[in-house]
Specification:
This protein has 4 helices and 13 strands. By secondary structure, it is α+β, with helices and mostly antiparallel strands. A 7-stranded mixed beta sheet has the order 1-5-6-7-3-4-2. The longest helix is centred in the last third of the chain and has 17 residues. It is elongated.
Amino acid sequence: MTTHVINVERREDQGKGASRRLRLAKKIPAIVYGGELAPVSIQLDHEPLWLAQQNEWFYSSILDLSLNGDIQKVLLRDIQRHPYKQIIMHLDFQRVDENAALRTAVPLHFVNEEASPAGKTAGAVITHELNEVVIECLPKDLPANIVVDLGKLGVGEVLHLSEVALPAGVSIPQLKLGKEHDLPLAIAKAAAAEEEAPAEAADAAKEEPKA
């Protein structure tokens, strides 16, 4: 498993005024909570964090928060950005218990789309219905992403959540709720079928007698 270390400092001052001063100093106020320990207010340097948050792993991987070498394993639970400036306003991190199952969203990576029967069919359109999925697993089994293989998808077919090959130790809690929660991930349609309806409607309009 790849290790992602984020250096942090303890934050003593609280309140909106203190947070505003931190941001002016190019720092980000944040909080770490969860587990048996009390919540702790921390601060991070904005520039390295801004670069880190542009990567997919920042949102779905276990992060190592380092406070003077003291490491706490956490997941990002919330990130607040300025509405129009390139500024991160606040972060929430949740501590991870390595012996307890966790639930978190991970991205879906679709592969072999062009090599699929639908991908090789002229005019066919493959749509991705989801871009992430909530999984459950122990921290040691947390994957960076879930691979969705579209290699066998044909025109007119739908690939559902239950058909995805999951890594060992990983499950999708949603599937335990019933068939109606087995959502489609990818749908292959013939483009010609989509264009037929507007064309037929136009022909019918031409044939309608004028009042």
